[in-house]
Structures are given as structure tokens and as C-alpha cells.
Amino acid sequence: MTTHAPHTAQARHQKLSAEIKHHRDLYYNQEAPELSDAEYDALEQELRALEAQYPDLHTVDSPTEQVGAEISSKFAPVQHGVPMLSLDNAFAPEDVADFEKSIRRFLRLPPEEALAFAAEPKIDGLSCSLLYVNGKLVRAATRGDGRTGEDITENVRTIKDVPHVLSGAGHPERIEIRGEVYYPLADFAAMNAKAAEEGGKVFANPRNAASGALRQLDATITASRPLRFFAYTWGEVIDGPEPNDIVDQIEKYQKFHDRYPTQTSVLKVFREWGFQVNPRSATTENSDGLLKIYEAIQRDRSGLGYDIDGVVYKVDRLDYQRRLGFVSRSPRWAIAHKFPAEQALTYLKAIDIQVGRIGTLTPVARLEPVNVGGVVVSNVTLHNADEIARKDIRIGDLVRVQRAGDVIPQIVGVELSERPDGTEAYAFPTVCPCPLKTAVVRELNLKGEEGVARRCTGEHACPHQRVEYLKYVVSRKVLDIEGLGEKQLQKFSEEGLIREPADIFTLEARDKTSLTPLRNREGMGETSARNLFKAIEERRQLPLDRFIAALGVKGVGETTARLLARAYHSESAFRDAMTALAAGDEEVKAALDNMDQVGPSLVAALIDFFSNDHNVGIYERFEAQLTVQDAEAVAGDSAVSGKTVVFTGTLEKMTRDEAKAQAERLGAKVAGSVSAKTHIVVAGPGAGSKLKKAAELGVQVMTEDEWLSFIGVA
Ligand code: IVH
């Protein structure tokens, strides 16, 4: 792993996050990935390592906190009963050994105590959640962002492996069966060959083909594709009549677990109910056994008839799984052991420079297209100047390209022995590639130290930066205005028609008196102009979080904007706080500092932004065009959500870590000391000063058992 100094780490983090989000969108929504899985994984892995090293970087905005991509609006949204999460990855045998160790540690299992694992091929398809009520399929959904997926019921009904009615007996009243939809390799090859012949859409890999087939608005098209389905897990389970409350629901769920105590037993009953479960699923007692299964599956990989990208290991006992719980977006009880990256050699034709929203110059390698493990790669990011210098990558070089997992391809290195004569080290540009040719500087961090990123100093005077910013402002996650594409924004920005968010909303009024109205322009026309103005009008009522995101404050993406919107609730409160912050108000600063997931760089960026009159002008003109809607209050649905809990004394049923993780899962905040803000103190034997303090402050005190029954797990 590369070790970064703190300042380079932040820049790298920002860069990686943006790349990952971009590639997730390409992969999940557009079925057009540019990276190999391994390349993508490498990015995610690097991001995780960075965050482990610099926990400050690990904000709610980070892609490591999200699953999949933002969902598209093609299908009706479906709220998953239980979130569909992702898996942590293992790459090396040591990671697998660590996985076993950390589980034993968490569960406090001595070495002589058996710990069985289930191992299953990791199917490289699309995860799908099938809801059965009284044994009948009533709904099917994609994973989406993990919480909300897309309703693809009609399409899924056409898959032959998906029973419309469960066979066998003992079906819970309501159960979400989850698994992977995939495209068999032979059918994929045949379909692509036919498409190529007939000039149809050729897919890069079976996974994209499966996604394309599933996300058809016309289910008869899906029906003509030979999709298959493997069941491997479940989501919401409610055994017996509708539960009355959360405690009742947990009890009903528990009944399912009592009947099927292991992953293996669940797979067995899935088969009885009519599902296909993967025939290569196996169990073993330790990480050495897991590695043997991994090797065997890897050996047979090419003969399976469908794509797999690794092996998933799961703790077999479900009571252990329950105790282990989840860390942010993935379970502690499972891990995906990925197959290694695939590599290929090709020539580097050129290095192009792209300018991002906040001016970062990103070098992109243009390659002689090359097939790397089934995907054609022709563009690869080189990240930054240091990366090029470190690897001494030169135009004309024969380079080794690698892609791994669901990721972005990368250049691993140069074949020096093949280097042609007369090449020169790459000279990174010192001016922006835009017509202004603004000077480029090295990015500075909070402490004023130099970072790796080169940035154009032109801010929104730089046409590239301005267009990138405007693209972001109209994008789906911010203003969500359809009909303003990159080309148009480029043109409008050049002409001075749209230079800042407010201009979007005054466009129609100005257009009425314009000599070159939009309807007369090439690529526009009467209808598109009208639709565009209508789309803009619809955004005059703008939720506070989107308003904040649209400001383009460095580091404030949709997630952070949501956080701020919830914290300040109304535009006026937000503006007052930011004005005070810029004027040096320590209280506002302290409140921000204390907010979960807000780090010093964010506070600095807000101060920077609001101390600049130019930005304040942009803000005010924008706000004047809108009715900014207040943020909604956060809905809590467990008995303890939003409550602050302190654990003290010895816990007897679980470790402190486990208790903390469980409380947080239920939406509680776990604090280390008792104060007037504490709602509940859970005191075990040996509790001392904290218990006393709780009594003094009149804070509710519970024993561990009382706590467990309060949260409904006793
Ligand atoms: S179990 C809590 N088992 O891999 C997550 N997932 O990277 C439970 N996948 O979203 C997932 N084969 O789409 C599981 N045998 C298998 C799998 C599998 C493929 C996919 C699934 C998941 C992704 C996580």
C-alpha cells in the first residue's frame, strides 16, 4: 500500500471517491463499465486503506458508506424491508486468516471451539430481492442503493429459476429471498454474436447483459433472455401474522432462525421451496479449509458456465451472525474473497489532461485498445503528476494494464526493456489546458502543505471548471434538470448565458427578449426549449439539501449537504449560521465540529466559501430565485433511535463493542461519559462513578437484561 502524508491523503481521497462514484454509475445504471472488476476493486481497496489510516476522511459521503449506485428513475422505487448490503473484500490468504481471527475475537471464541463457515461462489450478476407473501411472489426489486431498489417484478417473473409460488412447506408469512440474477456464458456469447451481426447492442460482459435484460421496461424482452437465478440469502422474514410492534417483529424473525440455525440449513430449505442454490456451496471449519475451497473453485472457474468473481465466506451459525452484526455497509460475518486481477500489455499513445469541477487536473492515459480479461480498455486514469513520475510513464511506452473485480483499470507499470529510444519523461503541464491558460498550482492542505493534486487557479473563470460545476448543479442529485447537456452548458457558459446557478432560473425571462432564443438554436427547437423551461420552473421549490449541494462548496456533496440541511433545518437558519461562522463565531464552529461526520476540512471549506463576497453573491442571487424548502425531521423507528446511551460496568451477555454496535444499529448514539444529554445508562456489575453521575442527573439506568428487553432482543 502507498503511504500518504495527511495532505496528499485528502486529495487522493477526494479523487478516488469521485472516480468510484463515476464508475459505479457507469456500472450499475448505464451498463457500460470502463474498468475491469479488479481495477475497480483496487480503487475501493485503496480508499478503504486511506480511511483506515486517516479516519477523518471516513465521512458519510464516502463511497465506502454506500452500496451500489444511486437508483435510476426508470422503475418504481421499492423500499427494502431489510437493507441489501455489500460485502467486504479479501484478496490475500492473510486477509482470510484475519477474517477468522477477528470473528473469534469478537465472539470471544476460544481456539478449541468450532467455528463453521459456509463458502459459496460469488456470482457476478445482479442481486435481486424477491418478496413472497404466503408463499406467493408479490414483488421483485434490484438492490439500488441498498435501501431503495427498483421494482422489476414483471421482468423477474419471466426468469425460469424464480418460482411464482413456493413449493414445499413451512414458508414464513412474509419473506424476502435474495440472490443473484445472471446470464449464462454460452447464451451470452450467442446473444452478443447475433447482436454484432445485426448491429444491435453488444455488451461488454454477461453481467451488463443481465442488467440490460432485467431493466427493460418491456418484460417480453426480458422473457426472451435466458436469465437464471441463484438464491443465497434472505432479507425481511416475518413468521406468523403481521407483527404488532418491533419487539413482536423481532420475535417472529427469531422463529425463522430457530428453525434454520445455519446458512447451510437455509440453503437447503431454499432448495425445498423451489430455488436453485449453487451446487458448489460447501462448509468447512477454518480459514485453511476456506482457502482450499477457494482454490478448487478457482481451478474450475472457467467450466462453471457463468461468471464468478470470487468466493463468499459466511459464518455458518445464524446466532453468531446475529451477534456479529454489521459494520456500516457490510456484515462482519461474511467476506468476499476476490480472484486476482487480470493483466495485459499495450502501448500508451497519449496523455490527456482533464479539468474537474474544483480545478483538479487529472491525467488520462490513451491506450491502444486492449482486451484485459474480457473487457476492452482504452482509457485509464493516471491519477496525478506524482503517479506518472513515480512509475516514469512515458508516451510511447509499452505498459502493463490491470483490471480486477468490479473496478477501474490501472497501469501497473512500464516494460522498461521495451522502451523505445528517444522518449522523454512526461512533463506535467504548468498551465490549464483551457484557452485562459491559467497557472496551475499544487494543492495545499489545511496546514498549508503541498498535496499531489495540481489545480487550475482560475476557479469559475476557467471554462472547464465552470462547465464541470454547472454540469454538477443540473445533475440528477442536485437540481435534476433534464435537457441541459454538457455541450449546451459549454455553449451557454461561453456566451455568458449561464455562469452561475441563478442564471438557470432567469434563462426563460432573458430568452424572451433574446435575439437568438433557444428555440431557434441548433439542437434545441421549440419543444425542447419549452420542456427545458418547464423542467427549470419545477425546481423553483428546492429542498434545502439540494440547495446546499448546488452551492459547490468544496467537499460538500449530496450526503454532507443532507447532513447540514438536517442540522440547520431551514435556509435562513443555515445562512445565519454560515454568516456567523465566516465572521469567526466560535459557537457555530464548535457545533459543527461536534457534528458526527464533520471534519476540520469541511469546516474550513465552509468558512472559506462564506468569507468570500463573490460566493455570497452567488448564494444570494440563487436563493432569490427559489423557495427553499425546510429539511424534514429524521424519522426514528426503534425504541432507542436518537437516544444517547452509555454502557458502564461489566456486560455479561456480550462484549462492549458488540453492545455498542448493536445500539448504533438501532439508531442510538453511544457515548463514553454521562452528561445531561445522556438518555440511558446501561450498568453492569462493578459500575462506579458513571452510575453515580447518572443518579445525580436523574438519567434512566437499566441493567443489561432490562436494556436487552427494552431493545427487543432478550
Ligand atoms: S451474500 C449482506 N452470497 O456480492 C450481504 N452475495 O459484494 C449478503 N453476491 O450484493 C450477500 N454471490 O450481489 C452473497 N453467494 C453470495 C453471492 C453474493 C454474489 C453478490 C451480491 C452482493 C455482492 C456483495
Secondary-structure blueprint of this entry?
Elements: H1 6-28, H2 37-53, E1 77-79, E2 89-90, H3 93-107, E3 117-123, E4 126-133, E5 136-142, E6 148-150, H4 153-156, E7 174-182, H5 185-198, H6 206-214, H7 219-223, E8 228-238, H8 246-259, H9 263-272, E9 282-284, H10 287-300, E10 308-315, H11 318-324, E11 326-327, E12 330-331, E13 334-338, E14 342-355, E15 361-372, E16 375-381, H12 385-391, E17 398-403, E18 410-414, E19 440-444, E20 450-456, H13 463-474, H14 486-495, H15 501-512, H16 525-537, E21 541-543, H17 544-550, H18 558-568, H19 571-582, H20 586-594, H21 600-610, H22 613-624, E22 627-629, E23 644-648, H23 656-665, E24 669-671, E25 680-683, H24 689-697, E26 700-702, H25 704-710
Parallel strand pairs: 2-13, 21-22, 23-24, 23-25, 25-26
Antiparallel strand pairs: 1-6, 3-9, 3-10, 4-5, 4-7, 7-8, 10-13, 11-12, 14-15, 14-17, 15-16, 17-18, 19-20
2-(butylsulfanyl)adenosine binds next to strand 3, strand 8 and strand 13.
Q: Average pLDDT across residues?
A: 87
- Major sheet attributes: 5 strands, mixed
Write down the Rg.
Answer: 27 Å
Total of helices: 25
CATH topology of the largest domain: D-amino Acid Aminotransferase, Chain A, domain 1
* Protein structure class: alpha+beta
CATH architecture of the largest domain: 2-Layer Sandwich
Name the CATH superfamily classification of the largest domain.
DNA ligase/mRNA capping enzyme
Which compounds are bound in this model? 2-(butylsulfanyl)adenosine
Question: What's the shape?
Answer: globular
The level 1 CATH classification of the largest domain is Alpha Beta
Low-confidence stretches: none
Strand order of the largest sheet: 2-13-10-3-9
State the helical fraction: 25-40%
Counting structural domains, the number is: 6
